[in-house]
Specification:
- Strand 5 and strand 6 form a beta hairpin.
- The longest helix has 27 residues.
- This protein is an alpha+beta fold.
- The protein is 36% helix and 24% strand.
- Helix 4 packs across helix 7 and helix 5 crosses helix 6.
- The protein has seven helices and twelve strands.
- The protein folds into two domains: 136 residues, Jelly Rolls (Sandwich), CATH 2.60.120.10; 78 residues, Winged helix-like DNA-binding domain superfamily/Winged helix DNA-binding domain (Arc Repressor Mutant, subunit A).
């Protein structure tokens, strides 16, 4: 049996290998955690579900969101490989979680948290991941309240470039609707903002529309503030 508690996730699950190995089973014990393989848009948990587990992304991208009283969706975060999510102070999940792409996650029972202190490396990794998630949540709160549409898009692209290895050409794993619901914009505003940034020569949007080429990172950084 393969364990995940003594080293970062990336050392244990090479891209594609875990999905192929687990596709037939969907779930299997994996050390103190268990593996879940999700198809694109498949729900992992819903808002209000008992928070029995917390999760770490092994492959793909998970989005967490809340349905507002007027029916709109607010995506609070996109979780990439290595990210921890679903840790709750109460007994229920405050957000829903779905696979933004085909994804694999490791599920850990909350009751096992007391046992994780025996593995210093893993517990430190979980704590570091949670602190990074908190930092991103704080930045997202400021983004929603204080920035224009163009500034929101610039901030989002800078963040994605950092999280996707900092390449000049980034392949966005989420749809424009997801981006809009994350930034508190309409999909039309997202498209207009990207077009405006392209017109100014700051980015280039190839025909694929999921790929964004960052032509002027300094200008993006200035808009990011």
């Amino acid at each position: 049996m393969q364990t995940v508690t003594n080293a970062p996730i990336a050392r244990h699950f090479e891209a594609g290998m875990l999905s192929r190995a687990m596709a037939a089973q969907g779930r299997r014990s994996c050390g103190v955690g268990s593996v879940r393989v999700l198809e694109k848009d498949e729900e992992l948990f819903a808002e209000g579900d008992p928070a029995v587990f917390f999760y770490r992304v092994a492959e793909g991208v998970i989005r967490t969101s809340k349905l507002l009283s007027d029916g709109r969706r607010q995506i609070d975060a996109f979780h990439f490989p290595g990210d921890v999510f679903g840790v709750e102070a109460g007994d229920e999940h405050r957000f829903s979680a779905e696979a933004a792409t085909a994804a694999t996650v490791i599920a850990y029972r909350r009751r096992d948290l007391d046992e994780l202190h025996f593995d210093e490396t893993f517990s430190r990794e979980v704590l570091d991941a949670m602190m990074h998630a908190l930092e991103r949540a704080q930045r997202h709160m400021l983004l929603l309240g204080r920035k224009s549409a163009i500034e929101k898009i610039a901030t989002f692209l800078v963040d994605m470039a950092e999280r996707l290895d900092g390449d000049d050409a980034i392949e966005l794993p989420m749809s424009r609707l997801d981006i809009a619901d994350h930034l508190g914009l309409t999909i039309e505003t997202v498209s207009r903002s990207l077009t405006e940034l392209e017109r100014k020569g700051i980015i280039h949007v190839p025909a694929s529309r999921r790929t964004i080429v960052l032509r002027d990172k300094a200008a993006l950084a200035r808009l990011n503030g």
